[in-house]
Specification:
It is built from four helices and no strands. It has about 120 residues and is mainly α. Helix 2 packs antiparallel against helix 3 and helix 3 runs antiparallel to helix 4.
């Protein structure tokens, strides 16, 4: 895991949360900005997952391996699912789902860092 990349992913996910909440309050459907932001977030998560897998291949093992892999896989699935739901739900609840997904990614990446560094 790379700390600065994880920090960037967390900040981007919080920006997505803020934009999604504003869009929800304005009662607007998801727009292109949120879709692009989710795509960039997914790219960052894929890069982070690549570095994590490379670390595992090199022999670096977190104490809670199953939990780490579960969180890592979960972070990769959430943004595409949120984008799909946001595009399909043309009411204010599409961006609300994206806000929840962004906050979830923020928490999961933070937890991944804790697991990787050995903090329980």
């Amino acid at each position: 895991m790379i700390g600065p990349l994880a920090t960037g992913v967390i900040v981007l996910s919080l920006v997505i949360v803020a934009i999604s909440l504003v869009t929800t309050v304005r009662d607007r459907p998801m727009g292109t900005v949120l879709l692009v932001a989710l795509g960039v977030l997914e790219i960052g998560l894929l890069v982070q997952a690549g570095f994590a897998v490379a670390g595992l291949v090199r022999g670096e093992r977190p104490d809670e391996m199953a939990t780490f892999i579960g969180y890592l896989a979960g972070t990769l699935v959430i943004p595409p699912a949120a984008a799909f739901w946001g595009v399909g739900e043309r009411s204010r609840w599409g961006p609300a789902v994206i806000a929840v997904a962004g906050f979830t990614i923020c928490v999961m990446v933070g937890r991944l860092l804790q697991i990787w560094q050995g903090a329980v």
